UniProtKB/TrEMBL annotation, chain A:
Identification of the protein by name: ER lumen protein-retaining receptor
Cellular compartments annotated: Endoplasmic reticulum membrane
InterPro entries (UniProt xref): ER_ret_rcpt
One GO CC term, this protein: endoplasmic reticulum membrane
PANTHER family on file: ER LUMEN PROTEIN RETAINING RECEPTOR
Organism of derivation: Lingula anatina (Brachiopod)
Protein's UniProt keywords contain Transmembrane helix: yes
Transmembrane segment boundaries: 62-80, 92-110, 122-139, 178-199
Keyword terms: Endoplasmic reticulum, ER-Golgi transport, Membrane, Protein transport, Receptor, Transmembrane, Transmembrane helix, Transport
Gene Ontology molecular functions: ER retention sequence binding
Amino acid sequence: MNIFRLVGDLSHLLAIFVLLLKIWKSRSCAGVSGKSQILFALVFITRYLDLFTNFISVYNSLMKVIFIASTVATVYLMYIKFKATYDSNHDTFRIEFLVVPVGGLAFLVNHDFTPLEILWTFSIYLESVAILPQLFMISKTGEAETITSHYLFALGSYRALYLLNWIYRYYFEGYFDLIAVVAGCVQTILYCDFFYLYITKVMWGKKLSLPA
Amino acid sequence: NDSDVNKDEL
């Protein structure tokens, strides 16, 4: 474990709970893409299947449980409890256009052709594009609530910190996983446009609105 | 190959 990975995991945890609290407190999921949340739930479920078979540490197991539970809870709040506030008219990204190609790629490019490894690879590839429905929804509505932009900033920062973690681990531990690094770069690049808007607008107290 | 390395990352 290193500081980049620890801060990255905490940033990820923060993002998930900022969103969960926003929906719970405001009793509304306006401006939030349910499709992205479904993809994130799929990412965690396919990645943490080894939760009961491969114990790494208390921290590792605890975080896996928290990530799965909080993301499933978010999906529940969006599609069941506060379904009336779900903005399905703007959350129109066709996620099958993500899941199918990513599934195919996981079969073709992986470290090991075993079910668990292919599911892990699928999860890594899917996570890199899972935010697209959310970014697409913001581009359609033209703006995002400030709390939603904080959620996105923390979520985007987590994988950027993981990139630093991989640089650290490469030089100090000789650890390198090309699949995770490439997917992590794609994932972080997708946030660049948002990071620019966040830093130039939200940091100065303005609302995040995309140029019309 | 990498898959043998324990997947210790989240």
